[in-house]
Amino acid sequence: MTPDIRLVAVDIDGTFMRADYTYDVPRFERLLARMREAGCAFVVASGNQYYQLRDHFPGHEDELCFVAENGAYVMDRGELVYLRTMSDETVSAVIDVCRAHADEVWNVLCGVEGAYCERGAVSDDFFNGMRRYCHRLSWVDDLKATGDQILKFAVNVPDERTDFFYDLFRRELEGLVEPTTSGHGSIDLITPGCHKASGLARLAERRGIPPKQCVAFGDGGNDVEMLRFCGVGYAMANAPDEVKAAADRVCPSNDEDGVLVTLEELFA
Asked: What's the whole-model pTM score?
């Protein structure tokens, strides 16, 4: 066992999950039992919706921790410990900027109760595809009238235009939201200072765990703060160079079960 590690945080897409969105469940179950014996918390840290993340680990919802929506929604063993919502004014301003580029920007509004797409603004194929990431997803007539508390925006743009829109959002929405990207045309617009590392910090403080006893795994730009926060940060072999530069070590790719391989070494 490795008693020095008291918290393990894993990103989901491109990190814990293989490209076909599966993982080795029996292998993970064995590792989870080892971590439980070692007094180590397992944290799922993702930009995805809490309800989607929870569904990946049936039967374990009340023993795992979740840093969902890039740190805006934090659960500790079935208890909501942090919620960061946006003001109506901020939500309206972001929607206006996105609508000004409606031919290239397709939007999902992520709230406490679920996620939302606007009828006529995105295609049925896009809506159905987003169900992989948002297990509670609904159509609305107007994104400014969901009736929900909003946590973040999940924006999709043409892959080759990711950097352009990242810079545009950072410039036009400065002080209101911060863009963060996992690449491939995906940009999350989140509350400034609210990211995976801030969510992990809240969980670690709540449990009395110093950052040096935390380990994180990630592959995207929205994992960088988390990799730097933890005592040891692992970038996946499939991560871009800038993410590897922020990490302490590189482990095998998501399709090689790199997280599970490494955890088996850490909790031998």
From this structure: 0.89
